[in-house]
Amino acid sequence: MQYGPAVRRRKLGTELRDLRTRVGLTSIEAARLVGWHQSKVSRIETGSSGVKPADVCRLLDAYDVRDAELRELLLILAGGEDGGGRQKWWHAYRGVLPAAYRDFISLESEASGMRTLETSVVPGLLQTPDYARAVTRAAVKGVPEDKLDALVEVRIARQDVLRADPPLKLNALLDEAVLRREIGGPAVMARQLRQLCEAATLPQVRLQVLPFTAGAHVGVTGPFVIFSFSSASDLDVVVLDNLTSSHYLERKEELKAYVEAFNALQIHALSPEESLDYIAGIAAGA
């Protein structure tokens, strides 16, 4: 039985192991405290076995973890429910969402920050419904209209993280090609550019444009997303998408490389104020 995607199991296991060692317990001693066999603790800590939220609670109690925010995050990582036992909203769409997409939405909903480099399309969190429909229709060939409707609903529902309390902090770098590529026709693209201008004024959104004049840069290798978690930086992860799946990078040296790449790209990019003017100029037909 698996209670969540592999990346979350591994992240959860690593955090639980660190919490155990922090209080000076061996895996045998921890298992004895909660009435388990030592092998169960080991399987959970290596991510080779899923774990129910109730079992995470038992371990956290045994390790005297009282940080409510950290407990909540670890409980969510343990499965598809929040700390109150409520199913997450995307479970209603599990019949139409690929597993990799559900994993991505799960991380997005739990993260405190998201840094994204986009080289082809507007980030999903900033798309209009018509733009999202056009992108989805192109990406999923032959999709029936009812499934297309559901996928667009999911794309728009994801945007609630920007209005949560506290909201997800979105730091987006957009290659100029994102703004120039006409998706859905002129009217759809015009509305999308106007929405980008509106989003750029939100305090939780930092939007920067990488103009064509920036020339060659590390971002030409492709888009990526970095998720950050305020309660536990060890849970940070990089997500790379390809045509058929998503690839998760978790090792510290990999995270460091992508964070440094993102920081370097910000230097090449226009400032947020210049970017807003640049997008507005393109929207006006400049």
From TrEMBL:
<dbReference type="InterPro" id="IPR001387">
    <property type="entry name" value="Cro/C1-type_HTH"/>
</dbReference>
<dbReference type="InterPro" id="IPR010982">
    <property type="entry name" value="Lambda_DNA-bd_dom_sf"/>
</dbReference>
<feature type="domain" description="HTH cro/C1-type">
    <location>
        <begin position="16"/>
        <end position="70"/>
    </location>
</feature>
<dbReference type="Pfam" id="PF19054">
    <property type="entry name" value="DUF5753"/>
</dbReference>
<dbReference type="InterPro" id="IPR043917">
    <property type="entry name" value="DUF5753"/>
</dbReference>
<protein>
    <submittedName>
        <fullName>Helix-turn-helix domain-containing protein</fullName>
    </submittedName>
</protein>
<dbReference type="Pfam" id="PF13560">
    <property type="entry name" value="HTH_31"/>
</dbReference>
